[in-house]
Write a structure and sequence with these properties.
With 348 residues, the protein is mainly alpha-helical. It has a domain at 1-125: Alpha Horseshoe (Serine Threonine Protein Phosphatase 5, Tetratricopeptide repeat). The protein is 71% helix and 0% strand. The relative contact order is 0.04.
Length: 348
């Protein structure tokens, strides 16, 4: 009997070691996670909760990548199996419940998410991990319940001894912007940046470039270009470095507004400031220019893509093929880099 117990224990420890190593290396895929879960379930010990958390996280992240609720539902099923079917009782910890809350939010079952959060409080754990509550904030914002999210952030989090971080505020900003409540989002941004009383309550809060990118995108969508440009110009005063994502928003808007000289100047300034254009930015610029029929400029930015050894995205390739299948554009092929002129030849 002792030999059998020893073998089960050794197998459990080996599974935990493999799961931990795979999780740390980022190589724990969905199928492997499910196989390892089945193995661990029959050999588990109380301390196996850490390994189970790795497995649940892997399944949960598969759901996030594919924007599907099916894996979130699977996580809930696996959680129930962990609770009910393990040969030795494994008790969930704060991390386990945090994973579960995230899944409930993605499944649009906020009521279950809050019930799980209530269970955490009832258990007596200190909820000073902002990640747990931030998932509920995102769930509320996704459900267009931004007012309730604001109440959680301003009132409930401080009551629980949990100081909101910039991710919490960015979630709320995005929620306001998605509901086209740009004015309220702008008020929140100014409060975050300039209100001294607010800063005292949210100590160590540092705005990041994502904060400004969210707000600039919303202002541009709302037709408030001047406000967006003013905010864009103020970014450096907060000690932040502009990134390609922020430049992309402004660049696309300038092209759409046909302010092409201003756009070229912006791109030059970006390169001088040391912000290297990424593949997404250059592809987006090429598509915008092609859409308005500016083949010459599009060709210049296709050359930049080539110089950096970036690939064309499928949507960019599709637009090029569609455009040069039309006779009126075939004589413009001379403006394209050499490698793309086959588009014109193929039509002939």
């Amino acid at each position: 009997m002792s030999g059998r117990v020893s073998a089960v224990r050794d197998r459990c420890l080996e599974l935990e070691r493999v799961i931990g190593a795979r999780a740390r290396s980022g190589s724990l895929g969905l199928d492997d996670a499910l196989k390892l879960f089945d193995g661990l379930r029959t050999h588990a010990r109380p301390a196996s909760v850490i390994a189970f958390n790795h497995l649940l996280t892997a399944v949960s992240r598969a759901s996030g990548r594919r924007s599907s609720t099916s894996e979130s539902e699977l996580v809930v099923s696996l959680f129930n199996q962990m609770i009910c079917e393990c040969s030795i009782k494994v008790t969930p910890d704060l991390c386990t419940y945090s994973i579960l809350i995230g899944c409930f939010c993605r499944m649009d079952h906020l009521e279950h998410g809050f019930a799980t959060f209530g269970l955490i409080l009832k258990t007596g754990w200190r909820v000073n991990n902002v990640v747990v509550i931030s998932q509920l904030l995102k769930g509320l914002c996704d459900a267009k319940r931004v007012g309730e999210a604001m109440d959680v952030l301003i009132k409930r989090m401080p009551e629980l001894g949990c100081t909101p971080n910039v991710v919490s505020y960015n979630t709320l900003l995005k929620g306001f912007c998605n509901e086209k409540r740009t004015g309220e989002a702008l008020e929140l941004l100014h409060m975050m940046a300039d209100d001294q009383a607010f800063k005292m309550c949210s100590k160590d809060l540092q705005l990041d470039i994502i904060t400004f990118t969210i707000m600039i995108g919303a202002l541009l969508k709302g037709g408030r270009r001047e406000d967006a440009m003013n905010l864009f110009g103020a970014i450096s005063s907060y000690g932040l470095v502009l990134d390609a994502e922020t430049y992309c928003l402004i660049a696309e808007n300038l092209i759409e507004e046909e302010s092409l000289e201003e756009f070229d100047g912006l791109f030059s300034a970006m390169e001088k400031n040391g912000t290297a254009p990424n593949s997404r930015l250059l592809n987006a610029i090429v598509r915008r220019l092609l859409h308005r029929g500016d083949i010459s400029r599009a060709g210049a930015y296709l050359s930049k893509l080539n110089e950096k050894n970036f690939s064309l995205e499928a949507s960019t390739t599709s637009m090029l093929i569609s455009l040069f299948s039309r006779e009126e554009y075939q004589h413009h092929a001379k403006f394209l880099p050499e490698k793309y002129r086959f588009l014109n030849e193929a039509k002939k």
